[in-house]
Each structure stands twice: as structure tokens, then as C-alpha cells.
Design a protein that fits this description.
Chain A has helices at residues 13-22, 62-71, 118-129, 147-151, 196-200, 202-207, 256-264, 282-286, 312-325, 328-334, 368-381, 402-416, 428-436, 456-463, 477-488, 492-509, and strands at residues 42-47, 76-78, 84-86, 89-94, 99-104, 163-167, 170-174, 215-217, 223-224, 228-233, 247-252, 270-271, 290-302, 340-342, 390-395, 420-425, 443-449, 512-524, 528-529, 545-546. By secondary structure, chain A is of the alpha+beta class. Chain A is globular and about 70 Å long. The longest helix of chain B is centred in the middle third of the chain and has 36 residues, at 87-122. The chains are: A alpha+beta, B mainly alpha.
Chain lengths: 547, 308
């Protein structure tokens, strides 16, 4: 049952008192079992407007991602720690890490009654990869054989040659090279199945998607644009993410500050990001109802190799000097109130295979004396061209980056005595355009949030030669080789070892300077219980109960 | 009179063309590639970027883009924004909320501003006058986002008289608080304008004549003094309506109102040309109509003004 929110204007106090007594389900009085909470509450959580139609392969941002993760179930899903668990898959088998045989569970259906079959996956993936459909997440299929033909500009190829349907419950996937961590990716939204109706009219489907996950749209038109999206449990769903509440309503906010006001007045049940302005007092305001939970994301500063001062051996020494001149402990404590943890590598601590003492990680420790020495060494090789002082770029439209960028700038200025400044970009797209067109005139901050829980996801897409998000234009054949070896390893453990070996190279070269790991800082209202955040910093919405 | 109105409507055509061209050009000149906003931190493959450019005509030169947009407008098709939604639908969704908010704010500032200004003007130099003047000065000096956050925190969070944010339904009671915040600053201006105007007119010859004719004080004040003092106030309110419709970005942000201001703000950040131009053009038309209304009101307020 849905509890109504009542406005309590003083002038209509009498009416307010009446309607207050009328709000039923989910109120604290009705709860008898305090340990598990009630399952009849509708949870109101903060969300942001999905930027694209709700089609798994055309969604590349968190607003739409959060919805898709609830209304769809892929072959696997991730538990709170990021361990994959089978959803639609009965088994995913391989002998050589290159050809995978995927068997589906029997009797799974979409909410329109269509069965979930091998074609539901294969057709959806083909649709996502083909260039003619211009799907934003198409590159997720790059490992599958035939991707290059289907994704080339102007290509009319509509299918990936590596995908073969064996029967209704089975299909095989052939990759273009062995990749042992490939099954880890299958919980990401781009790999979700689609019912046949989705491909007939994608635009209409994106407005009212039909999935196979723990939740479904409350009704046709449940997506009230820029206002809210109402989800109710999918009764047919059986699996590890079964709903513990009577629905999740995403209320769309334009900014976190506003959402926080709603949270502390119990008009919002869960807020996943505490606004910067309230970081200092949210623990006081919320007490037991606040959480700090590390997740798979980090913040770095990428310094392009095409900048004159930052190439070659001298560039390498300078990067190391910059890195050692930054006092990460102090900044994370003072500015973020310990809402970040100083980085020790290029990935994130919640991941399987993470190690905090890789050889070379001392380059990420604060050491102003060594920094000065390294800088002086670089000067001997090639003097620093003062006419092009370094800037650290950040976008000023989303997220509060100015404060920490200024702190980093001051650290470097004080310790190395060089000219350096922060450079705000009015919009995110302006910064991204310069990064893609290789016209950056300085360093650029970059935040990375994992799509799937794997070390490779933090390395390949950002530092491999020619990779899509390689802002620094880093290119090191040895590193590339180590990545390829890591992917080809026969087990995930061996793969992780190779990835960390590759990281040692990065720690020496520092194409980007890792700063800190992200920590989700969130809170919840007096109406709900059992709030836990997952490996990716998103609350486990299905597990939240009423009080 | 009818001719006058027809002529004013005809004048809207060059205004429309000039405004759309100018705004389209400004959005076009914004730094950064619009597809970069769509693709996000991870970027897209070149094939996808090419596909997006084709879909939104971004691969065309400026003039072609503009003419294509104009062609759409003339055939009543505003096209889609970068999320693939029809722009006309979006405007139809957000406009009523903003209109409601703007009109509520306008009524609040007009009623309170004129009444307080009238009393202050008639009792010039007395305690009410001085305190109202000081108060209005404070309201003008404090930035609107300070007022907004302060009132949201006090009334919405601490006292809980109303929800701190506006829901999708945007009911009257929910909009009251943002409307008060929005109206406050203009209220101070209306008050000061009315007061000055009243003080000027109270000593005018026709007022002395009216009093000498033996008219009641009430009739002198309401019909003669106030009516003649309202012309500058009405001019201000007309212009303010336009500003309230489009310029409520800060207030709409604070109270999470899904209105024109917020939509416009997001569209600018995304470099969503057609969306920005459509909204701004729409606002310009409203502004022109509000001005026309003001001009017509002049004649009613001051019968000496005639239209030909």
C-alpha cells in the first residue's frame, strides 16, 4: 500500500490533521516485526531523469541505469560485494576462455508473458552492436567476434558472427580473443535480454519498457518525465533480487541539495548522494540513518602526453613529482570529511584482486622532498617551459570539483614552486570535446565508475592504446601486452595477477595521477529500514523494507 | 483599436525570426560538441557519433540546420530533443507549472506591493513608511537563492508547514512557498514604485480639485490618485511576467519545480539547440503578448492615451 504525502500548511491545519491520520501502510505503528521490517511499504528514492529511452544498450548514465537494473535481469547479477550470481543463466561454460556456451534457466518470462529464450539475448546484443542502430553502449560488445564488421561506420551488417543460437535455452558466444573476465561483464545493463516487441518499435519500448527483472513499471506511462518513475514488484520474478517492498518510486531531483531537504523532513526515503554542502553535518542530522560505503569508483587527473612539458623521460619524472606533491590524506580528511579514501592504485578496493601495496604505489604517497628532487632531475633533462604553465581542468556544471582541484593546485604550488592553476569548463561536454579532439591545453580530472566489478574495467578502457576514454593518449606496448595476457589467463585469479603486473607499469608511468577512491555517502528516512549500498555505490533497492 | 492589435501581432513575425536566428546562432556557437554530452564520460564509438550527428542534423552547416528547424516550426513540428522526446510535448508538460507559479508570484507581488506602497505613500515619513522602506531594501539586497534556501529550511524542514519541494502534481499549496520567494524581490520594487508615484500624485492639481469638489477621501485616493499612479507599476509588472516565466531558474532549482526554467537550464548544459531555441522563442512570444496587454491597459488607466 502506498502512503500518501501530505502537505501541512498552517492555514489548513485542520485538513492536514485529517489527512495525516489517513496515511496508512508503512507507518511505524503498523510494524510489528522490527528486525525484518515490513514488506508493504513503497520506498521513495532519489533519481535523475534518464537521458535516453530505457533501452539497455542506449543507456550510458546512472539515472537510466538504476531503473534498468531493477526492471531487467541479465544472465548474471552482482551481489552487494560485486560477486556475480546467476539470474537467467543456468550455466556459463568455457574451456578456452574464448568460446562460451550459455544455458538458460527454464520457464523464465518477460512481464508481457513472452518466454526468455536464447534469441532474446542474441537479438538484443546484435541490435546493440550494429552501427546502424547507433547505440551508445555498443562498445560493450567489442570482444565478440564480428564486432568490427558490424560496428564500422556505415556498416549494414546486423549480426555478430560470434553469436549462435543452439536451441531455445542455449547459445554460444565466440570472442575474437580469449578473455577470462568476460563472464563478469554479463551483469551490466548492455547485456540484458529484450522481448521481440522491443526491436519492432524501440522508441515506444523505451517509454514503457518490458523486462524480466525484480520490478516492472507500475503502469503504462509510469515514467513521468522529470518528475518520477514508479516501479512495482514483478510477481513472476524468482531470483536473488526479489523485492522486499511494495514498490520503488524514483523521485527525480534537479540537485542533491534539494533532495537532502526532503530527506531530513522524511519526504524522501533514501538519498544515495549527500550534497557537498551537507557532508560536514549529515552524520549529525541523520545519526544511525547515515552510511558511508566504499564503492568501485575513483578520481584521477589525466595529463595528456601531447603537451610539450609532459612527454618522454622528463615528463615521467614530472608526473611522479606532481603525484608525490599531493597530500591525499589531508585533502580527503579536510575537504571530504573522510568521504574519500586516498588511492593506492588505479582500480578500487571493493574489487576482487585489489592490492594496496603494489610495487610502485609509493609514487602515490605524499613525499614533498622526493617530489622536489624528481622535479629537479626532470629540469636537468629538459627545462620546464614556463610559458605553458599546467592547468587542471574540471567541469563546473555537475559535481563540486572546484574545491578539491584548488586544494591539489595549492599542494603542488607550495611543494614544487611551479605555476599551476585550476581551469573550470562551463560544461561537461566542452571538456569532453577537447579530450576527444586532443585539444586539451592542460590536465583534466576524470572520474571512473565501474560498469562491472573487474580490475580490467579500470585499466583497458582508459589506458590501453587507442581506448575510448584514454584522455592522456597513453600508449605503452608493454602495458598493452600485459593487459592482453591478463585477459587470456585461464582463471580469474591468474588474470588479476597479470592485471596488477600491468598496473605496476602504470604506477611508474602515471599517465593519470590517481587521487582517491569514491565512498558512497547516503542516508535514509525514519520510514525505512535495511538500507545497504552495493559494490557500485547504488543502494540495493530491492532489499529495502518499511519500518 | 482592432487595427492596432492586428498591427502589433504582425510585428511579432520579424521578432520571431530575429529571435530564433539569434538564439540558434548563440547555441550553435557554444563551445563543445553536443554529442559529447550525449556520450558521457565513457565516450562513444566513431560510428555512433556519426549516427547521432546525422540524426540531429549536427553534420549540417549552420544555415541548413537553422532552415530545417524553421521548416519544422512552420509545419508545427518542433522536432525532438537529445533524449528523443518531442519538444512540443515537453513544453506542454512544463509550461502549465511555470505559468501557475508565475501568476501566483505576480498576484502576490502586485497585491501586496500596491497595497503596502499605497499606505506608505499616503503616510509618507511615518513609522509604517520608514519600516517598509527598510524592509524592502533588505529584500532587494539579499540574493534570491539565500531567501529561497532560508525559507525552504525554516518553513519546509523545521516548521514542516509545507513540503520543502514541489511534487509532480505542483498543487497550489506546494507552489505557495516558491511563489512567495519568487514574488518577494519584485514585491519590493512594486512597493517602491507605487509609493513614489503616489507621493507625486497626491500633490497634483487634479487631486486638489477632486478634494475641493467634495469627493470622499476614499474616492479621491482609489479613483484619482491610485489609478493615475499605476502606469509605471503596470509597466514593471508586464516586464516582470516575462522574467518570471523564464528567469525562475534559481527558484525552480531550489524547490525542484519541473518548470520552464529548469528545462531550459538542462538544455543549455547539453547544448540541445532545438530545445533551447524552442523554449526561448516561446518565452519571447509570451513577453511580447504581456507587453501588448500592458499597452492596452494604459488606455484603460489613462483615457488620454489613444491607439490608432
Amino acid at each position: 500500500m502506498r502512503y500518501t504525502r501530505t502537505s501541512k500548511m498552517l492555514s489548513v491545519a485542520a485538513i492536514a490533521a485529517l489527512s495525516l491520520s489517513a496515511c496508512g501502510g508503512g507507518s511505524p505503528e503498523s510494524s510489528t516485526d522490527t528486525d525484518t521490517g515490513t514488506t508493504d511499504a513503497v520506498i521513495v528514492v532519489d533519481g535523475s531523469e534518464p537521458q535516453n529511452p530505457l533501452i539497455p544498450t542506449s543507456t550510458n548514465e546512472v539515472g537510466g541505469g538504476a531503473i534498468l537494473d531493477l526492471i531487467f535481469a541479465g544472465l548474471v547479477s552482482y551481489d552487494a560485494e560485486g560477486k556475480p550470481q546467476n539470474e537467467m543463466a543456468e550455466s556459463i561454460e568455457t574451456e578456452d576462455a574464448q568460446t562460451y556456451t550459455i544455458t538458460l534457466k527454464e520457464g523464465k518470462t518477460f512481464t508481457n508473458g513472452d518466454p526468455v529464450t536464447a534469441s532474446s539475448f542474441v537479438d538484443a546484443w546484435n541490435y546493440g552492436a550494429a552501427a546502424k542502430n547507433a547505440q551508445l553502449s555498443s562498445y560493450f560488445f567489442e570482444s565478440i567476434e564480428g564486432y568490427d564488421e558490424a560496428s564500422a561506420e556505415g556498416s549494414t551488417v546486423e549480426t555478430l558472427s560470434g553469436l549462435t543460437v543452439v536451441d531455445d535455452q542455449t547459445f554460444t558466444v565466440k570472442l575474437s580473443q580469449p578473455e577470462s573476465d568476460w563472464p563478469l561483464r554479463l551483469g551490466y545493463s548492455a547485456f540484458f535480454p529484450l522481448p521481440a516487441s522491443a526491436l519492432e518499435d524501440p522508441a515506444a519500448f523505451g517509454e514503457n519498457p518490458i523486462g524480466n527483472g525484480p520490478y516492472k513499471f507500475a503502469s503504462e506511462g509510469a515514467w513521468q518525465h522529470n518528475q518520477q518513475i514508479e516501479l512495482v514488484p514483478n510477481e513472476e520474478y524468482e531470483g536473488p533480487q526479489a523485492a522486499q517492498n511494495a514498490g520503488v518510486t524514483f523521485k527525480i531531483y534537479q540537485n542533491d541539495t534539494t533532495a537532502y531537504q526532503d530527506l531530513i523532513s522524511d519526504n524522501l526515503d533514501v538519498l544515495k548522494t549527500i550534497p557537498t554542502s551537507d557532508i560536514k553535518n549529515f552524520k549529525n542530522d541523520l545519526g544511525e540513518r547515515s552510511i558511508e560505503s566504499p564503492y568501485a569508483g575513483n578520481q584521477t587527473i589525466a595529463i595528456p602526453y601531447y603537451l610539450p612539458n609532459w612527454e618522454g623521460e622528463a615528463g615521467k619524472l614530472r608526473r611522479q613529482a606532481l603525484s608525490m606533491a599531493i597530500n591525499r590524506d589531508e585533502i580527503t580528511e579536510v575537504i571530504f570529511n573522510n568521504g574519500r579514501t586516498p588511492a593506492k592504485d588505479f582500480t578500487a578496493p571493493v574489487l576482487d584482486g585489489y592490492s594496496e601495496d603494489l610495487p610502485g604505489s609509493e609514487n602515490l604517497e605524499y613525499n614533498p622532498d622526493e617530489a622536489k628532487k624528481l622535479w629537479a632531475d626532470a629540469e636537468k633533462i629538459e627545462p620546464y617551459d614556463e610559458s605553458e604553465p599546467l592547468t587542471i581542468g574540471y567541469n563546473a556544471d555537475k559535481g563540486d570539483h572546484k574545491t578539491w582541484v584548488e586544494a591539489v593546485v595549492n599542494n603542488i604550488k607550495n611543494n614544487l614552486g611551479i605555476e599551476i592553476s585550476g581551469k573550470p569548463y562551463a560544461t561537461f561536454k566542452e571538456a569532453r570535446t577537447e579530450a576527444t579532439e586532443e585539444t586539451l591545453t592542460g590536465a583534466l580530472r576524470a572520474g571512473w565508475q565501474a560498469d562491472y566489478p573487474s580490475l580490467y574495467n579500470f585499466l583497458g578502457p582508459i589506458y590501453a592504446t587507442g581506448a575510448g576514454s584514454n584522455d592522456a593518449r597513453y600508449s605503452n606496448p608493454e602495458f598493452d601486452q600485459q593487459l592482453t595476457d591478463g585477459l587470456a589467463a585461464s582463471s580469474v585469479e591468474e588474470g588479476n595477477e597479470a592485471m596488477n603486473k600491468a598496473q605496476e607499469q602504470l604506477l611508474e608511468d602515471l599517465p593519470a595521477i590517481p587521487l582517491w577512491y569514491q565512498v558512497a555517502q547516503g542516508g535514509w528516512s525514519n520510514n525505512v529500514d535495511n538500507v545497504e549500498f552495493g559494490w557500485n555505490g547504488v543502494p540495493l533497492y530491492y532489499a529495502i523494507t518499511g519500518k | 483599436m482592432v487595427w492596432y492589435i492586428v498591427r502589433r501581432f504582425l510585428q511579432l513575425i520579424p521578432v520571431f525570426l530575429g529571435a530564433t536566428l539569434l538564439v540558434y546562432f548563440l547555441v550553435f556557437s557554444l563551445p563543445g560538441d553536443a554529442t559529447a554530452a550525449i556520450c558521457g564520460e565513457r565516450g562513444c564509438t566513431p560510428a555512433v557519433v556519426a549516427g547521432l550527428r546525422e540524426q540531429y542534423n549536427l553534420d549540417q552547416p549552420f544555415w541548413i540546420q537553422y532552415l530545417l528547424y524553421l521548416k519544422g516550426v512552420l509545419t508545427f513540428d518542433l522536432g525532438t530533443n537529445f533524449s528523443g522526446r518531442p519538444i512540443a510535448t515537453i513544453i506542454a508538460e512544463v509550461f502549465p507549472t511555470t505559468a501557475k507559479l508565475a501568476i501566483m508570484a505576480l498576484v502576490i507581488e502586485a497585491v501586496f506591493g500596491i497595497v503596502f506602497g499605497l499606505i506608505a505613500g499616503l503616510r509618507k515619513g511615518r513609522i509604517f513608511d520608514s519600516s517598509v522602506l527598510v524592509l524592502s531594501l533588505i529584500v532587494i539586497a539579499v540574493p534570491i537563492f539565500v531567501l529561497g534556501f532560508l525559507m525552504q529550511f525554516l518553513i519546509g524542514v523545521k516548521l514542516q508547514w509545507t513540503n520543502p519541494t514541489v511534487s509532480g502534481d505542483a498543487t497550489f499549496t506546494e507552489l505557495l512557498l516558491p511563489a512567495v520567494v519568487l514574488g518577494l524581490v519584485s514585491f519590493a520594487y512594486v512597493l517602491r514604485l507605487t509609493r513614489t508615484s503616489i507621493i507625486e500624485n497626491v500633490n497634483a492639481d487634479y487631486v486638489r480639485t477632486a478634494t475641493a469638489k467634495g469627493l470622499s477621501h476614499r474616492r479621491v485616493v482609489v479613483v484619482h490618485v491610485l489609478r493615475n499612479s499605476l502606469i509605471p507599476v503596470v509597466t514593471f509588472l508586464g516586464a516582470d511576467l516575462g522574467a518570471l516565466m523564464g528567469g525562475a531558474i534559481v527558484t525552480e532549482g531550489i524547490f525542484n519545480v519541473n518548470g520552464v526554467g529548469n528545462t531550459l537550464y538542462r538544455a543549455v548544459l547539453n547544448g540541445d539547440g532545438p530545445m533551447v531555441v524552442s523554449i526561448v522563442t516561446f518565452l519571447i512570444l509570451i513577453f511580447c503578448l504581456a507587453n501588448l496587454l500592458v499597452d492596452l491597459l494604459y488606455a484603460w488607466l489613462d483615457p488620454r492615451i489613444r491607439y490608432a
